[in-house]
């Protein structure tokens, strides 16, 4: 009596290609759907900035208005609110915070990654624990300290709590761990000091990580409303989100087109900065994430 065995045939090249195409199509469909979902608020903001008030909340959504009202909305936003002053304040605050964060975090990360000293694992554990502390936790002690020092309503009061970034230390430490020890040892044999090794040898190779962190830092502090709202009461020192809150009242409260135009002006620098540094940003995230 003969038994018939089932023979499994390998998939043909056409079938393999079709499976790959179907999987790629599904992945791209999910990514495109997520991108559309995230871009919808920005599309609504841009279209509202060029629409007259009567067309913004119509039942049917239109990308292009029947009557172009962009010039009037942007002129109203710029004339009613000192948006350029808010942008300047945002640049000063974000730039000052970023510079000090880099000056502090890079040597700390280098020490944790390349120097051997007692207590290094404990210090790194404290850095990781620092990532778990929300920024709201030390707000009251910091406010009392700044009030005692008399530095409320200043740029320094908005910047000082963020000069030390544990996230920057962690990110740069992961990047520096992969830097070749042979190059550092050769520099030490040539009599080069540790600070010179950091700034002249290690840092030039860390620009992708620096660009990635710079994007994170600028976006976080440009959009920060919580801390400036606590320490600033002078309109001339308002950052972009705080400034928009000051002027979203009876003057512009009913003019949603002007508010959308103001939000567009405030959002534009972040978009431009990301488009300029996007390659370094993606390279930094990839290189620090696979270590």
Question: Which features would summarize this protein structure in a list?
Answer:
cell inner membrane, transmembrane, transmembrane helix, mainly alpha, 291 residues, 14 helices, MetI-like_sf
Strand count, sense and barrel status of the largest sheet are: none
Please provide the count of β strands.
0
With helices defined by DSSP (H or I, 4 residues minimum), what is the helix count? Answer: 14
| H/E element sequence | HHHHHHHHHHHHHH
Overall pLDDT score:
85
Strand content: under 5%
Helix content: over 70%
Structural class: mainly alpha
Q: Which stretches are poorly predicted, pLDDT < 50 over at least 5 residues? A: none
Shape: flat
**N-end to C-end Cα span:** 61 Å
CA-atom Rg in angstroms: 26 Å
Short structural description:
This protein has helices at 13-49, 53-56, 70-80, 83-114, 120-130, 139-149, 155-159, 166-176, 181-189, 194-202, 207-222, 226-231, 240-247, 256-289.
